[in-house]
Specification:
- The complex is a heterodimer of chains A (119) and B (94).
- Chain A is an all-alpha fold.
- Chain A contains 4 helices and no strands.
- Chain A has one domain.
- By secondary structure, chain B is mainly alpha-helical.
- The longest helix of chain B has 25 residues.
- The chains are: A mainly alpha (119), B mainly alpha (94).
């Protein structure tokens, strides 16, 4: 039982670390701010949620006491990371950070032009 | 085996933090830098969780909640500052 729990915990933590590394590569390599935010706010959040789940299982199955604080941390990261990503990207669009020059579609610009709202 | 996995995961987290630091210094626009700061905060949560397993203690678990709250508040404040130029508005008429 302990061995199986250790295998599951090690897998979850290693998966989270690898996802975080992939998110960092995405932030370094992708071409503009919007795609970089796409990498950072999705993969890094999933990675850290996976790590926290592994740590929760470690304290529950091996140390033998259940920590509600880690569950609270998982719920908090799961709720706030997409909100933070959306807010900073809305600020970036409103302060006219340029899109990648090979971008093909900008629906918000079309909508704002049709409604007569200054973009 | 679990200890090796934990230390390898700490190494991977450190490497990804260094890559975010590159984007934080170089980033062409301010939202890039804010994204990198947000992701560094998220990474610190993971590093704290893994270190609390390595040291076999549960004294650091409040730090996870604290770092999550601070990262979120910092990103929201930066977003509002970039969009409106001020963080706390004093006129209540709007």
């Amino acid at each position: 039982m302990i061995v199986i729990a250790k295998i599951i915990i090690g897998y979850l933590i290693l998966q989270g670390a690898l996802l975080s590394l992939i998110a960092a590569f995405g932030v370094v390599r992708l071409p503009d701010a919007y795609t970089r935010n796409h990498a950072a706010s999705k993969s890094a959040t999933l990675g850290v949620i996976s790590v926290l789940l592994g740590v929760f299982l470690y304290f529950w199955l091996i140390e033998g006491h259940m920590n509600a604080r880690i569950i609270l941390g998982i719920v908090f990261v799961f709720m706030t990371a997409p909100v933070a990503g959306h807010l900073i990207m809305r600020a970036a669009y409103n302060t006219e950070v340029p899109l990648w020059e090979k971008s093909v579609q900008d629906d918000l610009k079309e909508d704002r032009k049709n409604e007569g709202v200054k973009g | 085996m679990l200890d090796f996995v934990l230390k390898a995961s700490l190494l991977l987290f450190a490497l990804s933090t260094v890559l975010y630091l590159y984007r934080l210094i170089k980033g062409p626009s301010t939202p890039d830098r804010v994204i990198a700061l947000d992701a560094i905060g998220i990474n610190l949560i993971g590093i704290t969780a893994i270190i609390s397993v390595v040291l076999r203690t549960n004294a650091f678990l409040e730090i996870i909640l604290l770092l999550g709250i601070l990262t979120f508040i910092g990103t929201v404040a930066f977003a509002k500052f970039l969009e409106k130029g001020e963080i706390i508005e004093n006129d209540r008429d709007r």
